[in-house]
Design a protein that fits this description.
527 residues; alpha+beta; Serine Threonine Protein Phosphatase 5, Tetratricopeptide repeat; Beta-clip-like; 5-stranded mixed beta sheet; 4-stranded mixed beta sheet; 12 strands; methyltransferase
């Protein structure tokens, strides 16, 4: 008995020493050995000895939880906290550790409860300031998570100086169900105004590279991709729930036969029972296919990145955005802030509308979109593509397209297209589809004083053109840029600036107040 007690004391001392030195992996192993011996040890008959043993086991669970937390094993760390609190429900250090774990797991109400209990149990004047900080943080994140009301105004107004703002996970009024576009899709469950946030979610993993003004070489891309995969594998080895959720994503095969998951399983507070998907060796072939289909890059045409250094390229995996299908008439955009991805409406949505992103440039002709769709393994059948397939069979449209490729004056291209649409009685959406497809000609013509002097009276007014294209592709940063250039060149009053601010909300989302949005508009014009 005495020999066993001495062995336990030595183990506890060794574990504590490793813990203090922040040798987390070795300290976990030592604490695990100590806990196993303690539970096998004969229960002392002396009440004082029993109390000491319980205290030692409680501290061992608490310290092992802290070590696991530091290594990223959050769910295992949380289980250790639960074991410690079964022994002592008011153990301050455990309550603090559990609160931090829950905060990192985005379970804000439960974290708040932990910090409040810890505040009661803390020594007067000791840790109250730190705990009050955690309490306020939990309150703030719970509100952000519930409402999606994000305000990046101060950070934007300061030119993205300082630390990237911390955000909270948010799932808006959406659901996942079968899609007529392809497999599964995401749908609005209520009307959503343009600019409103739909999703705020943190990357499972991200890898970035500095471009240095050049495109990444093939070797650099391979290194970047390998590092990214390693990060994903490391994460899912530490979090079985994430492993299960990644398994719900498409791997590019049998889209129509895929299970439609309930969106609630992606909420932080939802526990998932362990199954065969969460155990055993990782199927690397399936994982590669999932990452190939679902990984997103920050430089996509449907994305904006808020940061000081734009000479940077990033790739990441975000779970719920992976369910958003492509359309050449998209209704949402994405905004990248640090490792967070914000999905917001780029035009007004009605309940039941499918939420769609443009995987490639919607402001280019049908043939180029078809070529780009091949690299994604999709064949878009949206109304715009179906309409343009018919229109691009017409000889005159073919001639206009050839003329543009051969360097025909852009004003002339625009004029010929507009006249052709009049003769063919193309109206409304159809007219907007073709204008969007020939955006390069329109933008060059309206930017050229020489073109406008010659063709200005024979082509559509600038405002009418912009409104027409926005109607089909939603807010787009290039439309915003040319609008700001026009305002800067010709001047504009209150109404013109309000129109620009409205378009800016469709491009960037409702993430800043009006004054900060003006700063973003200035950055947009200067970019």
């Amino acid at each position: 008995m005495e020999e066993m007690t001495e062995q336990m004391q030595n183990l506890r001392s060794k574990a504590t020493e490793l813990f203090i030195r922040e040798e987390w992996k070795d300290s976990i192993e030592a604490y695990s050995h100590f806990i196993t011996l303690s539970t096998q040890h004969q229960t002392p008959s002396d009440p004082d000895q029993l109390q000491k043993l319980h205290k030692s086991i409680c501290i061992a669970f608490c310290n092992r939880a802290e070590a696991r937390f530091n290594l990223g094993y959050l769910h295992c760390a949380l289980q250790d906290c639960e074991h410690a609190l079964k022994i002592d429900g008011t153990h301050f250090k455990t309550l603090l550790c559990k609160g931090k774990i829950l905060l990192n797991l985005n379970r804000y109400p439960l974290a708040l409860e932990c910090f409040r209990i810890a505040l009661v149990e803390s020594q007067p004047g000791g840790n109250s300031e730190m705990l009050n900080g955690y309490v306020e943080k939990c309150k703030k994140f719970e509100f952000l998570s519930r409402t999606g009301s994000i305000d990046l105004s101060d950070w934007v107004a300061n030119g993205f100086q300082g630390k990237v703002p911390e955000l909270a996970e948010h799932i808006g009024a959406v659901q996942i169900r079968k899609s007529e576009i392809s497999g599964r899709g995401m749908f609005a469950t209520k009307n959503i105004d343009a600019g409103s946030l739909i999703l705020v979610t943190k990357a499972i993993a991200m890898e970035r590279s500095i471009l240095g003004g050049k495109d990444l070489s093939e070797d650099a891309q391979l290194v970047m991709w390998k590092n990214f995969i390693d990060k994903v594998v490391d994460f899912i080895r530490k979090c079985r729930k994430t492993r299960v959720l990644i398994g719900k994503l498409s791997n590019g095969e049998d889209e129509e036969g895929l299970e439609v998951p309930n969106i609630d399983i992606f909420r932080p507070e939802t526990e998932i029972l362990e199954n065969m998907e969460s155990k055993g060796e990782i199927d690397m072939g399936k994982l590669f296919a999932i990452l190939d289909v679902n990984s997103l890059t920050e430089d996509a045409v449907s994305a904006n990145v808020l940061r000081k250094n734009n000479d940077c390229y990033g790739v990441g995996l975000w779970l719920l955005p992976s369910f958003i299908n492509h359309s050449c008439c998209p209704n949402v955009r994405r905004l990248h802030v640090g490792d967070y991805l914000i999905v917001h409406a780029s035009k007004d949505l009605k309940a039941g509308d499918e939420i769609t992103l443009s995987y490639f440039d919607p402001l280019c002709p049908l043939q180029k979109r078809r070529e780009m769709s091949m690299t994604w393994g999709i064949h878009c059948k949206c109304k715009r593509c179906m309409f343009e397939e018919e229109m691009f069979l017409k000889q005159e449209i073919k001639e206009i397209e050839i003329g543009l490729e051969r360097g025909m004056e852009c004003g002339g291209v625009v004029y010929k297209l507009e006249e052709h649409m009049k003769r063919c009685n193309v109206r409304g959406k159809g007219k907007a589809y073709l204008r969007a497809s020939f955006w390069s000609a329109y933008s060059e013509a309206y930017r050229s004083d020489r073109c406008m002097k010659r063709w200005g009276r024979r082509i559509p007014a600038f405002d009418a053109l912009i409104d027409s294209i926005i109607d089909v592709v939603g807010g787009d940063h290039r439309l915003l840029k040319i609008l700001m250039e026009e305002l800067k060149k010709n001047g504009g009053g209150f109404l013109e600036m309000e129109k620009a601010l409205k378009l800016a909300r469709e491009v960037y989302g409702k993430v800043v107040k009006k004054k900060a949005m003006r700063t973003l508009l200035e950055l947009c014009t200067d970019a």
